[in-house]
Write the structure tokens for this entry.
Amino acid sequence: MDLLQENFPQLFYLYSTYYTPYATYIHPLRRALLLTQSYFYQYAFPTLYPFYALTLRLLSSVLTEQPSLASLALLAILLLVSLKLMDILRRTIISWIAFAIRMIMYVSVILVAVWVYQRGLEQSLEDLGWIIGLFAGLGEQGERMGHAKAARRAREAKKIPKANHRGRTRGAGW
């Protein structure tokens, strides 16, 4: 409110004086606004007013006679707006994630190129072979550990006593 009170005299002066330093900019805009309003009230308003009045009268009667219908319509509108906002949020998040993945890929390509440039092609290929060997060794170690766990489970399963088969009687198990 203080901002309005402080600037009101300058705004009133700007509005009330015809010859201001900004008159060359303000008057064509004001003239265009007045001509647009004149055109609207002369041509469009007489044509649109009956539709406007009929629609307003119909809406007011529906809303006063059937308030449950109005609340359902409001609920549907709120649902559509919230779904639209969630869609915009989803698209924004997906686009940022895609951007981050793209940047990671570009940066990794640049880093590999710099690494090859600094180390030389032969040394880089040797390093690449060492890295592939490391991963292959880890894979083989994982296979060995997996086979060992599977054998241990098989031995534990053999230790469990077998169930007695009582024949085909009712309720004899699965």
